[in-house]
Amino acid sequence: MNGATREKSSNDEILFCSFSPRDYSIIYGGSDGVVNLSVILESKVLHKLSSSTHSGAVSCGEFSPDNSKAITSSHDTTVAMYSVHEDFKVLGSLKHHSYAISWCSFSPDGSMISASSWDNSASLSCSSTGKQLSSLKGHHKPLTASLFNTNGVLITSSWDKAIRVWDTQYGKSFPLTGHKDVVWSISCNPDNPNTIASVSRDKALSIWDIRMGGCIASVRDEYSHLVYVTFRGDNLYACGDGSTVIIKDVKNLLGSPYKSTSGHDGRVNQLALSHDRRYMVTAGSDGYLVVWDLVNDGNKTDMDVLVEGLGTL
Residue 28: beta bridge partners? Predict the structure, then answer.
């Protein structure tokens, strides 16, 4: 770990991490229900606050596009809203589901919040009032994720092996099928809203075209334990049970990964990259949040450089 100091967070297991779209602030949380806020400042990680907002494990969190708000979702069936500029003051709680919430996200303009739940549905709420706008039902098993592409189209994934693309105005959707087991994670390409990626318990990392309604590339077996995937530029970053993070070229999915690196003792549940792609954070089942410096704007050959004095929280 290149001499980095390892300090364990208060979480037994960190389930999510997310960067601010404007600076190096990070929210993260996990199995103990605590939401944490930290910031990278002058090559050091400073812990700013912890909030016991939820009564269950915190599954996901995200800053709004304008960085004024943040949201977190929990197994306690709620989504909490915070004011970023008021020391993460809790603005309210959305209670639109009957079972654990697996994911939450803002729409591109920040006006709506989506949530996916183990009650087999997704919901859309107004980010200003918290009022539920719609309940979306199409999956027949618990949902694992719900997020918007840059055009504002909602995408969901589920234990029913399907990905669904929604017309939220009419509550209609169509499925993307091909996975043979639970779809753990999906990601929308910010540079091409018609392209999404997914990872599944069937050992597949796949790329889909929602306009065509089908899979355009898929690789299996080599990465058999991936649980999370995200687009950044021409690359896919993915992580999972192997305690590693891999980077793949979107245009050469079948090729060897650019880099595979490890910083955890156990599964890497999620990762996030800063707005300028200088830093990456990884959330681990070992209770650590590892902060990486991706030298030269994330150059693949330097991914394993861990900044002296950064490290884990």
Answer: 17, 36
Q: Residue 301 CB: number of other CB atoms within 10 A?
A: 10
Q: How many CB atoms lie within 10 A of CB 276?
A: 12
**Average pLDDT for the chain:** 87
Closest CA to 177 of 138, 131, 151: 138
Give residue-wise pLDDT tens across range 107-144: 999 999 999 999 999 999 999 999 999 999 999 999 99
For residue 224, what are the contacts with CB-CB under 8 A and spacing of at least 6?
203
Q: Which residues of 97-134 are buried (b: 16+ CB within 10 A; e: fewer)?
A: beebbbbbbbbbebebbbbbbbbbbbbbbebeebebeb
pLDDT in tens, 179-207: 999 999 999 999 999 999 999 999 999 99
Burial 34-60 (b: 16+ CB within 10 A, else e): bbbbbebeeeebeeeebbebbeebbbb
- Euclidean distance between CA atoms 128 and 243, whole angstroms: 39
